[in-house]
C-alpha cells in the first residue's frame, strides 16, 4: 500500500481491528513509518515477493535486504512476514505445469522468509496463493502458513474451465432476452457494464467468448456496453423475448464490484439480498 491517504485509512482501521498489509519498497516503508507514528498500534507489514507474476513485489535479494535493514530499526512497523501471488498459473498449459509453477513459487517465497529469519526477523506469516493452485493445497511446502485463493469463493467460467466443470460456479449475472433478430442470434440486456469484457486467452483457464450461459455450452459471442450477443439456434428456439438466462462471467472478481446488491437464490427462490460492501471503495 502506497500513499498517505490510503495509509491514514489503514491507521484508523488498525486502531479498531487487527490487520496486516503489504509493501515492496523502501519508499512505502518510509511512508508507513511516518503515518503510523501517530497510531497507538504499530503497522503489521508483509513484504511482497515477485515469483513469476511480473507485477509488483521484490525481485532481487539485495532489495529485500535493504527493506530488512529498515525494518530492524523501524519504531512503528512490525515485520509480519512475506507473501506472493501466483496469478501467472492461470496461463499454465496443464495441471502438471501449474503444480510445478506453484511449488517453485512457494520455494522462492520460503527462500526470502529464511533470509529474513537469518537476520533475526522470523516470519509469522508466509502467505501464497491463487485460485488455480487452490486444488493443490495438499502440496503446500513446510513453512507456508497461509493459502489465499480469491476467486475460489465464488468461482467463474475460467476456473470452471480449469476444473472441467462449471457446477461449482456460485455467481451468475441475470440477463433478459430483449431481441431475436435472426434464427440464430439472440440479444441480452447485459453487456460490458455488467459482465466486463475480460477474457483469458491461454492456459488451463482459457475462456471462449465472454462467459458461458449456465447449463449450456453456449458462450456470449460479443458484449457492447449494454448488449450481449448470443448465437445459438437451440436457445433461439427455446427462449422467448422477455425470458431470463444466467451468465457465468469469465472473471467474477471485477463483476462483483459492478453491483450494489447480490441475491442469494436456491431452487429458483430469492432467500436473501446482500449489500456488496466493497462497492465504491476504490477511491
Automatic annotation (TrEMBL):
Which UniProt keyword terms apply here?
Answer: Lyase
Q: Which InterPro entries match?
A: Ala_racemase_N, D-amino_acid_metab_enzyme, D-ser_dehydrat-like_dom, D-ser_dehydrat-like_sf, PLP-binding_barrel
Q: Write one Pfam family the protein is assigned to.
A: Ala_racemase_N
Its GO biological process annotations read: D-serine catabolic process
Q: Does the keyword Coiled coil apply?
A: no
Q: Which family does it belong to?
A: Belongs to the DSD1 family.
Record-given protein name? Alanine racemase
* Naturally occurring in which organism (per UniProt): Candidatus Ventrousia excrementavium
Amino acid at each position: 500500500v502506497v500513499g498517505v491517504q490510503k495509509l491514514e485509512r489503514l491507521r484508523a482501521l488498525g486502531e479498531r481491528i487487527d490487520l496486516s498489509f503489504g509493501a515492496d519498497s523502501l519508499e512505502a516503508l518510509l511512508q508507513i513509518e511516518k503515518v503510523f507514528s501517530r497510531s497507538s498500534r504499530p503497522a503489521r507489514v508483509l513484504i511482497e515477493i515477485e515469483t513469476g507474476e511480473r507485477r509488483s513485489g521484490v525481485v532481487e535479494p539485495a532489495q529485500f535486504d535493504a527493506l530488512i535493514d529498515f525494518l530492524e530499526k523501524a519504531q512503528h512497523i512490525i515485520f509480519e512476514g512475506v507473501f506472493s501471488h501466483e496469478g501467472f498459473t492461470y496461463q499454465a498449459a496443464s495441471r502438471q505445469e501449474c503444480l510445478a509453477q506453484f511449488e517453485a513459487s512457494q520455494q522462492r517465497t520460503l527462500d526470502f522468509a529464511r533470509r529474513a529469519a537469518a537476520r533475526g526477523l522470523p516470519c509469522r506469516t508466509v502467505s501464497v496463493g491463487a485460485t488455480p493452485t487452490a486444488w493443490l493445497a495438499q502440496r503446500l511446502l513446510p513453512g507456508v502458513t497461509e493459502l489465499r485463493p480469491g476467486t475460489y469463493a465464488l468461482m467463474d467460467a475460467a476456473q470452471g474451465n480449469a476444473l472441467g466443470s462449471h457446477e461449482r460456479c456460485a455467481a451468475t449475472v441475470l440477463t433478459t432476452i430483449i431481441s431475436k433478430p435472426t434464427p440464430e442470434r439472440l440479444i441480452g440486456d447485459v453487456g460490458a457494464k455488467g459482465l466486463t469484457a475480460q477474457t483469458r486467452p491461454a492456459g488451463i483457464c482459457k475462456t471462449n467468448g465472454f462467459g458461458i450461459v449456465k447449463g449450456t455450452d453456449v458462450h456470449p459471442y460479443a458484449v457492447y456496453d449494454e448488449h450481449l450477443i448470443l448465437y445459438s439456434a437451440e436457445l433461439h428456439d427455446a427462449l422467448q423475448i422477455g425470458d431470463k438466462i444466467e451468465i457465468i462471467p469469465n472473471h467474477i472478481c471485477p463483476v462483483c464490484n459492478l453491483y450494489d446488491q447480490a441475491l442469494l437464490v436456491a431452487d429458483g427462490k430469492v432467500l436473501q439480498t446482500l449489500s456488496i460492501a466493497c462497492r465504491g471503495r476504490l477511491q
